[in-house]
Each structure stands twice: as C-alpha cells, then as structure tokens.
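User: Last request for today: this protein with zinc ion, please.
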Amino acid sequence: MKSFIKKHLSKLLVGLVAILALWVVILVTPINGYLSLSGIYNLPIPEEAATYSIDPEKGYYLEKMSEGVYFVSSHSHNTMFIEAKESVIVIDALPSLGEKYLNAIRTVTDKPVNHIIYSHNHNDHIGAAHIFGDNIEIIAHDITAQKLAHAKDPNRPIPTITFENDTILKIGGRTIELAYYGAAHSPGNIAIYLPDEKVLCVIDIAFPKWVPVHEFAVAEDLEAYFGIYEKILAYDFTHFVGGHAHLGSYQDIVDQRNYVFDIKKSAAEVFATVDFAGLGEKAAGIPNQYVGVNFGLNKMACDCEKKVVDKWGEKLAGVDVFTRSHCLKMIFNEATE
Ligand SMILES: [Zn+2]
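Assistant: Here's the final one, the structure of the complex with zinc ion:
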C-alpha cells in the first residue's frame, strides 16, 4: 500500500486538487443552483410537522377530533370516520391501511359501517373500499362514479348515490355537507364538511405543516387549485383532514395558501426578468436546442425556489424537496397563459 501511494503520489495529488477546484467552482458560481437536485437544501423538519409514529402491532394512528369523529393515519395517508346513531360512516378506504381501518373503527364502536364517502377516484385513497363488502351505500360525485364505472376495479366498487354540485347528507344524527369546486386536484374531488363538529376534509390539496407534493399534488387544473383555497377558508373549521401529512388547523391552511401564492408570485417575478432574446442568441449555436431551453427553465425554477425556500424553509416541512417542481410548473404556466 505504502509503495502504491509513493508511486502514484503525484497523480493522487492532481486528482485531489481537481476535486477541490471543482467543488470551489460549484460553490461560487450559479452552477450551484442549476446543478442542485431538489433536496440539496436538506433542511430539518420543523418539530410540529413530525408525522405520527405508528405502533407496528396496530399499523395505524387514531385520534379523536370531536365526539364520535376520528382521524386515522397509515403514516403515508390519512382519512377519517364518523360514528352515527346506529352505524359508522367512513370516508375513503386507504390501501395503506387495508383491513386495519376496520380494526381502528372496532376500537371505538361495534356499529356496522353502512356508508362510505369517496373523496375522489384515486386508488391510493379508496383502493381498499372492497373490504366493507356489498351491503353498503357508496356516495361520490357524478364524475367519480363515471371514472370508476370505466375503471371496472373490483377494489373500488361503483358509487350507489351520486350528486352533481353539492348535497347535504343526514345520517343517524350527523349532518355532512358535500361540495364540488372543480378539478383543483382531479375531476370529481369533493369537500366533505361536518358543520356541527367543525371538521373539514378535502383530499390532496393542502398538506398541513408540510408542502404539497410534486407540482401542487399533480393538480389537474391550476386555476381551480389556486381558487379552492378561498373556498376552503370560507368554511368554519377547527380540524382539517387533507389526506397526507398532518392533521391540520385553520391556520395551517392559511399558511399553505400563503406558501402556494408565494410560489405563484415568485415564479411571475422570475419570469418577468428573463432576457429571452439573449437566451435565444446563446442557444442558437447549440445543435441540440433543448439544452438551451432546459437551462433557461431550470435557471428560472432555481431562482424562484431560492426566494421561496428563504421565506418558508423553517416553517413548513418538505420545502426543500418539492418547491422546485411547483416553481417549474408555475413557470410553464407563466409561459403559456
Ligand atoms: Zn388523489
């Protein structure tokens, strides 16, 4: 080993110097931003954002939100159920919980589950609906029913009761208001509200104490996505179930709205400062024109990300992971709208 080092000492030194030089270049030039992959900020998770520890024996986390109204988490996904006079009403059926959803319900009541409300058609939220058997009313938006009729998935039975815009359910002394505000996440995704208990459930829009995942949780209609915050905040609620992250408060949704609107604003500011003519000239000499386009888009996304991370990095978890994708989505939107 010693003789090897002696023999190759000069080469090893050159290699070391080259690595150091590259590191300095990356640190002191804007390449730093462009090369960085999402997550490079590597920020700590704020204490209050730490997600629920799940007892591996049980496989779920259960929390009472109001009398007979429970929040359930599988760690990756969240949902809720409601105990009515003679039955239980469940919202969604998470594949990540499966039969454990029933175990969680059985810890508080032996009443039969007679109704399930589908928030939307996505498999990761309702893909275990079959566990409740055939003798159950399934309530969903018309569009969700159409999508499920098309999917023909035995794990996601077709709804038996549907509605178009909004409806009010009265089941065993419970009042549940259902409303549709467009494809903010996906067509057919509804708001589920318990006015007496002040509990609101809207899935895959806001991620309490965290940021939305990739591209505003893959929102299908960005205008509807930004518009739905006003609708959500018009409800009077103390508990918010968003399908992921944490059980939320009203203030958590105010924070999330402010975060997503900061991205919108930052993306517009960055977009307004770009010298497209200059970029075009520089890109003209590159045979693969996509290289220049990609560079420009990523530069804008990184500049937008920096502004937002500086402001929200200590407040919300995951700012360092998904802000770039939100910024890039908004920059495309700026370029096309
Ligand atoms: Zn979804």
